[in-house]
Amino acid sequence: MMNEPLSSIMTTDIVTVNPGDTLQTVKDILFSKRIHHLPVVDGRKLVGIITTYDLVRLDQPFSEYENIRVKEVMTTKMATLEPHEKIGSAAEIFLENLFHGLPVVNEAGELLGIVTTFDVLKYEFDKEYPSQ
Questions:
Q1: Quick one: pLDDT band at residue 33, thresholds 50, 70, 90?
Q2: Which pairs with CB-CB distance under 8 Å and at least 24 residues apart come from 32-39?
């Protein structure tokens, strides 16, 4: 059942931000791209993640976003997976932690992709109802 590698479903065309970017940049990206998770990178190395939930939890007016840096809000202790790990591993982490997105990294901690609960749901749906 979910034994295929994450590399088969992860998104590799990833939108990212840097620790020095403002929350205004984050808000603009999240709203325009209609996404909920933004990996934070320093070069290619994953250093954090910021989500729509982080913005809600911050409880600041949008007018303050230009004065707040990503590094002040981002989560730095995050679960990650490697591309060879199984889809079932991601599903288990999602269920146990109520996460909705996981960065996929290599051994050096460089960001390679992201997998979300939507990706897992789509994978299962496509298996059950393959295209005709």
A1: very high
A2: 36/100, 36/101, 36/116, 37/100, 37/101, 37/114, 37/116, 39/14, 39/103, 39/111, 39/114
